Amino acid sequence: MSEPTPLDTIEKALAGLSAGEKARLLQKVARELGGGVPGIDTDPAVCGGEACITRTRIPVWLLVSARRLGASEAALLQAYPTLRAEDLVNAWAYAQLHRAELDEQIHAHEAA
């Protein structure tokens, strides 16, 4: 019988984690991968290349701006029915890693 690989050990441990713990783990892995965040896409053909929630055209800067203005996560989920709670987790993780980029986008859209 062979010894379990590190991946086998991690997969077994994942089963015992809560959804929130899994989200935090996902954020850590994404940071180690160089700033990419699962569930966030940047495509020059979509929203001018601004970071958006995967499978939507909802830009991360819009969600961050709404949150700064006091919108709750529940209000965002209600306002954007295609969003899921995990999408907001991903957006906040992206925002932590790309604060300056999002600040510039928010400023540019406010000025327009």
Helical proportion?
55-70%
Quaternary status of these chains? Answer: single chain
List low-pLDDT spans.
none
Overall pLDDT score = 89
What is the number of helical segments per DSSP (H or I, 4+ residues)?
6
Q: Radius of gyration over alpha carbons?
A: 16 Å
Q: Got a strand count?
A: 2
Principal-axes geometry comes out as elongated
Specify the biggest β-sheet: 2 strands, antiparallel
CATH class: Mainly Alpha
Strand order of the largest sheet: 1-2
| Overall tally of structural domains | 1
Spatial gap, N to C terminus: 65 Å
The ordered H/E elements are HHEEHHHH
Fraction of residues in β-strands: under 5%
CATH topology: Arc Repressor Mutant, subunit A
Highlighted features:
elongated; two-stranded antiparallel ribbon; Arc Repressor Mutant, subunit A; 58% helix; mainly alpha
Question: What would you note in describing this structure?
Answer:
Helices cover 58% and strands 4% of the residues. With 112 residues, it is mainly alpha-helical. The chain has a single domain (6-111), classed as Winged helix-like DNA-binding domain superfamily/Winged helix DNA-binding domain (Arc Repressor Mutant, subunit A), CATH 1.10.10. A two-stranded antiparallel sheet has the order 1-2. Helix 3 packs across helix 6. The protein is elongated, with a radius of gyration of 16 Å. The N and C termini lie far apart (65 Å). The model has no long low-confidence stretch (mean pLDDT 89).
